[in-house]
Amino acid sequence: MIRxxxxxxxxxxxxxxxxxxEKIISVAEKKADELIKEATAQVELQKKRVIDAEERKGIxxxxxxxxxxxxxxxxxxxxxxxxxxxxxxxxxxxRIKEVKTSGFKGNSYSAILAGLIRDATRSLTxxxxxxxxxxxxxxxxxxxxxxxxxxxxxxxxxxxxxxGVNIHLSLSDKRIKSAGGVIVRSKDxxxxxxxxFEQRLARFSANLREDxxxxxxxxx
Length: 220
Known about the structure:
- This protein has 2 domains: about 1-100; about 105-210, hypothetical protein PF0899 fold.
- Helix content is about 65%, strand content about 15%.
- It has helices at about 5-100, 110-125, 150-160, 195-205, 205-215, and strands spanning about 135-140, 165-175, 180-185, 190-195.
């Protein structure tokens, strides 16, 4: 058996220690590399999650902006429609003064009022029997009263009576506050048809709005 001296033993221990150290370092470095790779993967995953979350936030924000823009666009369009409709109706009311002096489409203002009286009278007498009579009165504004005479009312009454309902029309002493038009009602005041221009515009507002929108916004 070979006997080793103290020096040789120390050197062998050192060599074994170095070898062991290298093994330990190699294992440690390998483990460290694995840990670093794992940590790097975790970091990248976290980064991707953050990016995805930010992207989702960005998409959600974009969708919110789009929704808000669409809502604002609808509000602006609605406001524009309301403004244009109001201006159109306001202009229509202003035109009444011109109609009173110049007529409209070849019809005098008296003829227009007569037509409104006919319409209102027919509405009131619709469904009445031929044997029954209707005593009706016509109410005008102070400004419009001169446009209708008793003779005109008699002619309208005769025309409608010829259709099967006996009626009598008279001009009321009462006056309405209106830009124009008429009210035809029973003498007892229980039933009436309001054909003042303001009321007609109010009744026809839905159709007027639809027509105005089609005309003003047809390209939209």
